[in-house]
Amino acid sequence: MTIAVHTLETAAEAAPGPEPRVIRVALAGFGTVGGALVGLLRDREDAIARTHGIRFELVSILVRDPERSRPYPVPGDLLTSDVEAFLAADAHAIVEVLGGLEPAGRIAIAALGRGRTFVTANKALIAKHGPELAAAASGHGGRLLYEAAVAGGVPIIRALRDALPETGVQGIRGILNGTTNYILTRLSDGATFDQALAEARKEGYAESDSSRDLDGRDTEDKIRILAWLAFGADPGVFRVHRRGLTRHADRIAADADAFGGVARLVGECLALDGGLVAAVEPVIVSPGSSLARTLGADNFIEVETTYNGTLGFSGPGAGGGPTASAILSDLIRHVPHPPAPENTPMAVADGRELAWVVSIRSAGAVVSLRDLLMAEGVDPVLEMDDGCAGILRVRTAPCHRSRIKAVERALEGASLEPVVTRFESGGFSSA
Ligand SMILES: NC(=O)c1ccc[n+]([C@@H]2O[C@H](COP(=O)([O-])OP(=O)(O)OC[C@H]3O[C@@H](n4cnc5c(N)ncnc54)[C@H](OP(=O)(O)O)[C@@H]3O)[C@@H](O)[C@H]2O)c1
User: Fold this and answer.
1) What residues form DSSP beta bridges with 157?
2) pTM
3) Distance between CA atoms of 311 and 297, rounded to whole angstroms?
4) Which of 268, 314, 310 is nearest to 290 (CA)?
5) Ligand 1 pocket: which residues have CB below 6 Å?
6) Residues 280-322: pLDDT tens digits?
7) Termini Cα distance of the chain
8) Where are the alpha helices (DSSP H) in 261-419?
9) Cα(357)–Cα(393) distance, rounded to whole angstroms?
10) Maximum distance among all alpha carbons in the chain?
């Protein structure tokens, strides 16, 4: 069989016009991450076509056991356990989520050597062979993308590669392993080590070989990748001081507690004394710190720079969904930006019900803030009268923005110097 070699650009040229361009994807691995990616491609198919003008088509899936039943059923003829047959599939992009060095390395070299896009979540592969694969990519017009290999859904690779090179990165440190952070969080809640590890496995956070999570090798791989990007250090060569949690997680958590702190497994790499210092080890951190406040399988990364201060990145660091979304963003990112879709969304009225804090100068006020709020259909929840400062504050129940605007206008009309601030007790759009 002849292998048709396409780059994504040739695919784009071949299929102009309003129809979405078809990008053929071969997927190596159909476990936690591979399964989540198939689900995501299915769920987001129409949205991706609308906003990016592309449609991903799976052309082959490599697994160990093609007969096993899968949470996301696919046509049986897509599945193969034969690496050569998988490599022969006519794909524009190859996604590798097998884990381990082989056959992942062979697939990477074959894909990049043919000028394809190779997207991977495999930190062990990039930590050991990153420069070699990058050279294969640039030598043959392929692309090597590995956002999902570090910190799951947190876009730290893109930040280091595209946004931060000119900021003078001095050091990177953070929580880079969801399994150990999940275990340390659950130990603080009173769970036993075995319970916490079993839960992490059940949630899909733990690697199939969880010893790599526990002894810090997984975090070490990620620190090597980050140091490669930030400082140009060959990831396979420099020394990383490593102490993991193995056998001691309970004690580490108890020691931290005894000293009023919180235990976290921290990876770091720093430019120091003209060289590089890298470590992975448990650290007792202050309870109010960002590291301590990173809970469960979340990751947190701090990048210290010379010209741009210290930047923090946080979010889900493991699990099929976040990792698959990082892979999908690499796949989409590779495709040249399409023209804006015809049905570009327009701004609409904000229909959300949000809570607010309204404060006024109370001295000399002749209207009751409470009455005024209620007259506009806004329920006051908590009132605080700061008599000394002459300020009266009310927190409201959630209401439409238009109602609070009406309150604000009325208070301005009464010369009460209103200040209106949105009050969030939860996430992005919550009241
Ligand atoms: N899980 C996470 O939260 C997470 C987060 C970030 C990055 N990652 C990385 O993503 C990669 C995949 O992780 P995962 O959790 O999805 O692993 P997984 O659940 O163990 O799935 C591995 C998949 O690869 C297939 N496979 C493994 N070795 C193979 C071989 N030699 N030949 C053919 N097929 C093979 C397996 O086939 P069968 O299904 O037939 O056994 C399975 O479908 C790893 O590099 C991991 O470090 C994972």
Assistant:
1) none
2) 0.84
3) 20
4) 314
5) 29-34, 62-65, 68, 81, 97-99, 103, 121-123, 148, 152, 204-205, 207-208, 318-319, 323
6) 999 999 999 999 999 999 999 999 999 999 999 999 988 899 9
7) 59
8) 320-334, 369-375, 401-413
9) 7
10) 88
